[in-house]
Amino acid sequence: MAGGRSKKDAAAASSAPPSGPRGRANNRPQIKFAHKLVLNQWLFSLFNVKRFEDLAEHLRNEALEGLDENNIHHFHHALTAQLFNLTDLPTELLLEYDQNIVKHMQRLNERRITRGEEPIVWKYFQYLTLLFTEVYLDRYFRDPKALLAALNAQVAIYNADKPEADQISPFDEAAEAWPQLNKLAYWSATGSGKTLLMHANILQYQYTLEKHGRGRELNRVLLLTPNEGLSQQHLREFEAAGIDAELFNKDGRGLFTGRTVEILEVTKLREDMGEKTIAIDAFEGNNLVLVDEGHRGASGGEEGAWMDARKRLCEKGFSFEYSATFGQAVKGKPKL
Fold it and tell me: Tag placement on the chain: N or C end, fewer CB within 10 Å?
């Protein structure tokens, strides 16, 4: 799991298979979590680069922010000028992804412009994050089995020169592919605009689901937060973005459920229904689940419980998770 680690490096959406053993081998230090992000490595390989910096160096000029007269991102032109003849990502496909990003940005800017507020203009690291998400969702919906095989090939490359203790377990190619691939995590620093990315991710997922004729399958859009304060903050930010949202009400299921984002604290999810808690099984499994700093809502020893809750909520759907502190959260906690 995880994306970039700072504003200048907060780029990749990612999802990785469970890590292998996390001890030491022959007293050799464990490889840092940031160097075990296999999905990032695979995404970079599609662009024929090995590091995020190799992409970012072409986009850092602030003059490249925004759109040209044809509503195409200057970032797209800069990328395709430097990275031509990409076998896996031809220019016309990158342009299609770019236009999806433009469409979602314009949707998020409608209310801002109406109110006379500053519209969203993506920074280079945000654009790359959204571009990586376009790549992943496209392949996930088109051919999850091929995506799983490609990621396993990247796992094999990663493992080739690693001691056993630092190797990563591959996905199970004998099992159905999509349930193993339906979670993405973003590792982005505080202040890097991860809430804006969340809003765009909702639109990206809904659009791709509709594109593949599966829009009716979505049951609910749920946002899990660690506390009520953050829930209220998200409610205000959704309103500013023109996205329908409400605090979750277990006694009501509105007409627009499935199109409205329902916000609730991860601490309120329990096995059984209570006065102030909600039974996980009360939700069907085909949900789009958004998790903001979910591990912060779990006290010591509860990490496995909330991860199980998230897994069950998106069992037949999809999950996006966001955190500025994945590195600290996973340290010494194999379940994370």
Answer: C
Of the candidates 171, 167, 154, the residue with the CA atom closest to the CA atom of residue 30: 167
Between CA 199 and CA 203 the distance in angstroms is 7
Q: Report in angstroms the alpha-carbon separations of 171 from 19, 145, 150, 185, 258.
A: 10, 11, 10, 17, 30
Q: Answer with the one of 174, 194, 225 that is the final residue of a domain.
A: 174
Strands 245-247 and 261-265: parallel
The share of the chain scoring above pLDDT 70, in percent, equals 82
H or E element that contains 206: helix 194-211
Q: Residue 290 forms beta bridges with which residues?
A: 223, 320
Residue with tokens 């609910």: 220
Whether the Cβ atoms of residue 118 and residue 132 lie closer than 8 Å to each other: no
- For 256-268, write each residue's pLDDT tens digit: 556 799 999 988 8
Note whether 161 and 188 are same-domain residues.
no
Asked whether the beta carbons of 269 and 278 are under 8 A apart, the reply is: yes
Which helix (H) or strand (E) element contains residue 74?
helix 74-82
Query: 131: which residues sit within 8 A by CB, 6+ positions away?
Result: 94, 97, 98, 101
Q: What is the pLDDT of residues 301-315, one digit of tens each?
A: 556 666 787 788 888
Q: Of the candidates 174, 198, 224, which is a domain's last residue?
A: 174
DSSP 31: P
**Domain region containing 206:** 182-336
Cα–Cα distance, 184 to 276 (Å, whole number): 29
Specify whether the CB–CB gap between 282 and 309 falls below 8 A: no
